[in-house]
């Protein structure tokens, strides 16, 4: 076991890596998916570097995992043209299929995807440094999400198969696709968060251009053939490259109808502005967050510390739902810091595949320098590093630092660190905490730790109009996926959950007629003779 603060032996030699987790030769990926074919890109490639370094004769050397295509605007627009043609103004094969048939295609894809679990999990570890347990969980949770989406759509369709009679008007209301969707996911959950928009977009009958995250790109490669073989040509197109070369051109074309994006609010705003008809663009956005954890004076400290450590440091704090700032009442500040520090010391640093590892290298180039800058700024303005070795770093690895007392003049108070820095703000009056949340630019979630009903109740009422979710005596999180996941202010647009995502990627359409004999007879004939895919009373089992 590592001495947690001694990072001299953090990185392994090649011989140290267990056989089943080793990667072969670097993967030179030149394929991308266009109109049902794996096309070969002959242009420039982007190197894919692992956050893992190998210890060797010449010191630490970063592992090069391979390369991916750096497509240009023309290639991206060809993918868009394929999606536009497959949608064909809503007349294409995919948008006009019966719901039950679209479900079959998605089920086919899911079966093919499950075959690639080992390959995808291994690439998750090597590409973004996610530990083995969490990488497996991400894959399995994504499969579960697809299953849940299929069930939710069946339920939605069953409800829509009835006719409604209101004020002498007979109608059938169903959800139909929006058009062409652009789906982009984040590097911290490059599979799960991407598929929570991609799968609902597809299953509702939209055609899709999908661009993988900036890190966690190669791990989509084992799924390219499954996508190709499971959907009609042009329904799903997968492109690679720099966003400013590819995505900018897609948005400026005006042909994107739905934009699903998880990233920064500034990135989302810049892209939305490029669309020539923004009123025609529906967006589902998961953006920045600075989720506070609030520790009240009457509290189960052991639980608060346990949840706060997990909330702040799961996947090294690289989660939009991570606890990014902790407000701790002065009366419990010292015991909280002591317990947090002790708990942090039990977290094992190392490589993603090592048993029991909790702290791993960070995938973003420049991240360690950025965190260092935040740390130095806080210390210069009066914060202390509470835990032994906090802020120690080596190459891509940054050992977590617990900082206190943090105040409003420090960058860490406002900036979303998205990494293993844990700022603690001592407070005396709850008004300070309430003001922080009211004036924050972000409004995703927060956590309240306490057991005084009057105080907890007061805070709940103060915050329900500020954030999308309030967690009591628990860390912030997305799941269960059947619950709404959204945010306010700069943190999100639209709501995602299994149920809500189907609605984000569709619109209700109504077929109505006056309730009189000849019309009833006409509609009955259409249904009996199966003349329409829309007007139907079929019940999906």
From TrEMBL:
CDD domains: ALDH_F11_NP-GAPDH. It comes from the Bacteria. Residues 63-505 form the Aldehyde dehydrogenase domain. It holds the Pfam family Aldedh. The keyword Oxidoreductase applies. Gene3D superfamilies: Aldehyde Dehydrogenase, Chain A, domain 1 (3.40.605.10), Aldehyde Dehydrogenase, Chain A, domain 2 (3.40.309.10). InterPro entries: Ald_DH/histidinol_DH, Ald_DH_C, Ald_DH_CS_CYS, Ald_DH_N, Aldehyde_DH_dom, Aldehyde_DH_Superfamily. Keywords: Oxidoreductase. PANTHER family: SUCCINATE-SEMIALDEHYDE DEHYDROGENASE, MITOCHONDRIAL. Belongs to the aldehyde dehydrogenase family. This is NADP-dependent glyceraldehyde-3-phosphate dehydrogenase.
């Amino acid at each position: 076991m590592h001495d947690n603060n001694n990072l001299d032996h953090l990185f392994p030699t090649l011989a140290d890596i267990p056989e089943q987790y080793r990667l072969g030769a670097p993967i030179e990926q030149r394929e991308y998916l266009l109109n049902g074919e794996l096309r070969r890109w002959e242009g420039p490639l982007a190197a894919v570097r692992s956050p893992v370094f190998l210890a060797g004769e010449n010191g630490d050397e970063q592992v090069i995992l391979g390369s991916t295509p750096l497509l240009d605007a023309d290639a991206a627009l060809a993918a868009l043209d394929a999606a536009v043609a497959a949608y064909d103004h809503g007349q294409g094969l995919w948008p006009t299929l019966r719901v039950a048939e679209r479900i079959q295609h998605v089920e086919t894809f899911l079966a093919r995807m499950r075959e690639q679990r080992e390959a995808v999990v291994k690439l998750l570890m090597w590409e973004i440094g996610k530990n083995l347990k969490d990488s497996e969980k991400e894959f399995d949770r994504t499969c579960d999400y697809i299953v849940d989406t299929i069930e939710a759509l069946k339920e939605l369709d069953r409800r829509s198969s009835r006719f409604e009679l209101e004020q002498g008007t007979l109608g059938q209301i169903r959800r139909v696709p929006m058009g062409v969707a652009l789906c982009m996911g984040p590097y911290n959950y490059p599979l799960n968060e991407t598929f929570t928009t991609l799968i609902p977009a597809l299953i509702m009958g939209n055609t899709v251009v999908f661009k993988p995250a900036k890190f966690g790109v190669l791990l989509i490669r084992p799924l390219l053939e499954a996508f190709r073989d499971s959907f009609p040509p042009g329904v799903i197109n997968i492109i690679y490259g720099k966003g400013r070369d590819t995505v900018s051109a897609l948005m400026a074309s005006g042909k994107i109808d739905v934009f699903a994006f998880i990233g920064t609010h500034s990135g989302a705003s810049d892209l939305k502005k490029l669309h020539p008809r923004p009123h025609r663009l529906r967006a589902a956005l998961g953006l920045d967050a600075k989720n506070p954890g609030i520790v009240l004076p009457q509290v189960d400290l052991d639980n608060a510390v346990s949840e706060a450590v997990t909330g702040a440091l799961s996947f090294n704090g690289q989660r939009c739902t991570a606890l990014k700032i902790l407000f701790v009442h002065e009366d419990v500040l010292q015991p909280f810091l002591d317990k947090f520090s002790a708990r942090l010391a039990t977290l094992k640093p190392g490589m993603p595949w090592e048993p029991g590892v909790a702290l791993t290298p960070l995938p973003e180039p420049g991240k360690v320098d950025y965190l260092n800058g935040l740390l130095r700024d806080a210390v210069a303005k009066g914060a202390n590093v509470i835990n032994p070795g906090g802020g120690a770093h080596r190459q891509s690895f940054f050992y977590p630092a617990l900082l206190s007392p943090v105040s409003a003049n420090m960058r860490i108070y406002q900036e979303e660190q998205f990494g293993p820095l844990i700022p603690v703000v001592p407070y005396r009056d709850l008004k300070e905490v309430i003001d922080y949340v009211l004036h924050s630019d972000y409004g995703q979630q927060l956590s309240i730790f306490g057991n005084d009903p009057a105080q907890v109740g007061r805070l709940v009422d103060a915050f329900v109009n500020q954030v999308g979710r309030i967690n009591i005596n628990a860390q912030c999180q997305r799941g269960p996926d059947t619950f709404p996941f959204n945010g306010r202010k700069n943190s999100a647009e639209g709501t995602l959950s299994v149920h809500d995502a189907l609605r984000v990627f569709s619109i209700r359409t109504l077929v109505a007629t006056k309730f009189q004999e000849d019309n009833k007879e006409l509609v009955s004939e259409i249904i009996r003779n199966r003349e329409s895919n829309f007007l139907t009373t079929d019940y999906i089992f």
